[in-house]
Amino acid sequence: MSTPSKPRVATTSLCGCFGCHMSILDIDERLFALADLVEFARSPINDYKEFDGRCAVGIIEGGCCNEENVHVLEDFRKHCNILVSMGECAINGGIPAMRNNLPLRECLEEAYLKSPGIWNPAGILPNDIEIPLLLHRVYPCHEVVKIDCFIPGCPPPADAIWDTVVALLTGKPVTLAYERLKYD
Amino acid sequence: MHQALVTVVEDICGRYGFDRTRMTDIVIAVQQRLGCVSTEAMEIIASKVNSHRVEVESVVTFYAFLSVKPRGRVIIRLCKDIVDWMKGYDEVADAMAKELGVTMGETTADGGITLTSTPCIGMSDQAPAALVNDVVVPNLTPERGRQVIRDLRRHLDPAQLITMVGDGNNAHPLVHSMVRNNIRRRGPVHFDGFESGCALERTIDQTPENVIATIRASRLRGRGGAGFATGQKWEFARNASGERRYVLCNADEGEPGTFKDRVLLTECPDQVFEGMTVAGYALGSDSGIVYLRGEYAYLRAFLENVLETRRRQGLLGKAILGKPGFDFDIRIQMGAGAYVCGEETALISSCEGLRGDPKNRPPFPAQKGYMGCPTIVNNVETFSAAARIMERGANWFAEMGSERTTGTKVLSICGDCRKPGVYEVPFGITARELLDMADADNPGAMLIGGPCRQMIGPERFGGQICYDDLATGGAILIFNRARNKLEIAEHYLDFFIEESCGHCTPCRVGLVLLKEVVHKVVSGAGEPSDLDYMRRLANVISQTSRCGLGQAAPNPVLGALQNFHTLYADMVSDRKLGLLSTFDLSKAVADAELRVGRMSQYV
Predict the structure, then answer these.
(1) Mean pLDDT in each 10-residue stretch from start to end of chain B (603 residues)?
(2) Cβ separation A125–B588 shorter than 8 A
(3) Dihedral angle computed from the Cα positions of residues A127, A130, A136 and A138, in that order, rounded to the nearest 10 degrees
(4) How far is residue B509's CA from residue B500's CA, in Å, rounded to a whole number?
(5) Residues of chain B in Cβ contact (below 8 Å) with chain A
(6) pLDDT-based confidence at A87, cuts 50/70/90?
(7) What is the DSSP-derived secondary structure letter of residue B49?
(8) How sure is the predictor about A1, in pLDDT bands with cuts at 50, 70 and 90?
(9) Interface list for A 4-43 with B (CB within 8 A)
(10) Between chains, do A129 and B578 touch, taking CB under 8 Å as contact?
């Protein structure tokens, strides 16, 4: 169903809750229009895990809390013409960044050694190679790579995502109406 | 112990009539007497003046010279203004800290000496300088800094550091200071001798309306820098309704690199006070306040004495010069180390015994100012000029200066030049003429201090000092060609970040963000888009801050960008797509590597 002339879009969720991706799905029947408009490259939507070429737009949910997040984000930057930070966590670090005021040691001890109900007599912190190392604090994406565009919200409303993607793909300036940015 | 404290604090409150609007004086007096304003002392003050402890605390914690916890008996405040930094602040600070065995901001273990830094203390013509309690120690070198520490260790008495006194009234027994005036050019308005009472004699012959008309005819504009027409301001206050009217003199000279009011107060205090008295007559006011910055506390006894002499001469007090109903007196209100108090509404807050927070305008002080009454706030130099105008006439004054800016301006010139000091020059003089006069050393840029705070390059050295071109409150800083303009702008940002009162977000947060991006560019990590971001952010701060501090704070950055654009375009470069140069993955994972015991596979 895809033709090579369609622009390619990649998405990923770093240190987020996938809520922003839920919001992408929330564009409802416009998913069909989107499918006509673009081809999804690497994305949880099609479960492709690697890039196989350049993309027009990359959409990032979540900030960077570990080394793998940084690696993925760098990979997105290298492959995408326009990189978009989507949602509170990508833009500001969000809930995960609440740990930024605490030393990493205290966070790890609280999670694996001291919390009620923990049984860890050897006092081991998880160190399997499969588990990415945590960064000393959670970074918003634009402090790690250059970000071209930001969609605020927690999550951003489906309409804001739709308007942004359509504007970027049609080469129009991205302007979100006041209602798209007003949350109360 | 507690009873002794109560007695002392109660005595101080009593001196100010248990008046909560004199809170600033009360807490300064307590600080002086006890070395700090402890929570206990705050509680006593609150109960004595019918206030709340938090209200007292809000005042105490606002001013840099007041503290809740005791500091050293002697506090060395090393001035870290931009000129001090150019003249070797780092080396002096390092030498003094090493000699003392503490780091900046610490007190020696015996509680004897605290070493700390402070923004501009108005001594940029004799930098690096320090305040040791109230004593000014100018022209420091690392060796002299070490000697100061050795002497203080021996006697803990700042007064004994004064080995020689400066020129003019700096040698007056009540000033007794090492400060030098450095008056390089004497003009006809401020430095041409002044006989006490001569302006008032001409004033009381006229109606108050005519006095204001004279000031208007002279076209005198505010010398603090904003340049509001003085006669008009006086007229607004005279015509506003209110029970009383007040005349406030802004001697909170805090703009980095300005020191001309220091010299005016040292050499022509009579003329300044006479100008205030003229204003009192014109407004129908019986009360004036000089807001003297805490850094100039060494002038206080001298100024009080001048006021006392004027009272004896019948130039202050009841029925001045025998004119029935012309009553006017002046008190000195000390500040305590807060730059923002130079902003007129913040200055009024401070005089009212509140935190030195700016107030919303309108209403303007001329309508509702000090204690809600019509108030004028004028600069020291403005009052001095007003007195001379009454003495010699509006036409005499208006003939000097440029076409649209009349009179002369007292400038404080400092930085990379051989003759730093005070120059009284006619308005309309060009920046280049100033550079020649001050014997500038290979000048590459000038900062014209004032509300506009412009950084100009050689192509604008032909510009004129006046309100239509290069408007200034008096600070002229000269930078040689080797100086990095954006680094200078960064220093200014440090100053404003420290002095922001924190009330509004654009100033409190915006300036920190601006500094981050400026630093990024200065350190070579910048990208072309950073310059646009810098410009946008600076404009947002200018346009949305609540008072003049935030509105003008980004100007050095904007000026540097505008006047030295190519310089910055060269400093930034497009990054390869990948991680930002400001992000260091190896540092970010170092802690986790240590905790978990294996190395990152991505570094």
Answers:
(1) 91 96 96 94 96 95 94 95 94 96 93 94 96 96 97 96 95 97 97 96 96 97 92 97 96 93 98 98 97 97 98 97 96 93 94 93 94 97 98 97 93 96 97 97 88 81 92 93 88 90 93 94 87 94 92 89 85 80 90 91 86
(2) no
(3) -140
(4) 10
(5) 527, 529, 575, 577-580, 582-583, 585, 587-593, 595-598, 600-603
(6) very high
(7) T
(8) very low
(9) none
(10) no
Cβ contact A67–B602 (<8 Å): yes
Name the class of domain A8-98+138-181.
alpha beta
Instruction: Give me the helix-helix angle, B269-283 and B230-239, nearest 10°.
Output: 40
Q: List chain A residues with CB under 8 Å of B585.
A: 67, 70
Q: What is the 3-state secondary structure (H, E, C) of B508-531?
A: HCHHHHHHHHHHHHHCCCCCHHHH
B204 and B220 assigned to the same domain: yes
In a domain, B178, yes or no: no
Are the beta carbons of B161 and B152 closer than 8 angstroms?
A: yes
Q: What is the enclosing helix (H) or strand (E) of B148? A: helix B142-155
In 3D space, the residue among B461, B402, B412, B411 whose CA is nearest the CA of residue B436 turns out to be B461
Q: What is the 3-state secondary structure (H, E, C) of B215-240?
A: HHHHCCECCCCCCCEHHHHHHHHHHC
Instruction: Provide the pLDDT confidence category of residue A2 given band limits of 50, 70 and 90.
Output: very low
Domain ranges in chain A are: 8-98+138-181
The amino acid at residue B26 is I
Contact B537, B493 (CB under 8 A): no
Q: B496 and B469, same structural domain?
A: no
Q: Which ipTM did the prediction report? A: 0.88
B377 in the same domain as B283:
yes
Q: Both B365 and B385 in a single domain?
A: yes
Contact: A125, B596; criterion CB under 8 Å: yes
For residues B374 and B283, is the Cβ–Cβ distance under 8 A? yes
C-beta atoms of B578 and A78 within 8 A = yes
Close Cβ partners of A124 (under 8 Å, ≥ 6 residues apart): A112
Are both B233 and B305 inside the same structural domain? Answer: yes
Amino acid at site B582 = T
Neighbours of B15 (CB within 10 A): 12
In a domain, B602, yes or no: no
Interface test with B, best of A77, A135, A139, A145 (most B CBs within 10 A): A135
CATH of residue B472: 3.10.20.600
**pLDDT attached to residue A58:** 96
A·B CB contacts under 8 A: 71
Q: What H or E segment, with its residue span, contains residue B538? A: helix B528-544
Question: What distance in Å separates the CA atoms of residue A101 and residue A93, rounded to the nearest whole number?
Answer: 12
* Residue contact B583–A74, C-beta within 8 A: no
Q: In chain A, which among 90-109 make CB contacts under 8 A with chain B?
A: 103-105, 108
Q: How far apart are CA A167 and CA B275, in angstroms?
A: 64
Residue B575: list chain A partners with CB under 8 A. 146
Q: Give the model confidence (pLDDT) of A116-140 as tens digits.
A: 999 999 999 998 999 999 999 999 9
CA distances from B471 to A61, B175, B374 (A): 50, 32, 27
Helix (H, G, I), strand (E, B) or coil at A184: coil
H helix and E strand count, chain B: 25, 14
pLDDT higher than 80, residue A5: no
Contact B164, B285 (CB under 8 A): no
Cβ-Cβ contacts under 8 Å, B591 against chain A:
103-105, 136
Residues 6+ apart with CB under 8 A from B508: B500, B502
Q: Which residues contact A57 (CB under 8 A, 6 or more apart)?
A: A7, A8, A9, A10, A80, A81, A82, A83, A84, A165, A168, A169
Q: Which residues are bridge partners to A11 per DSSP?
A: A59
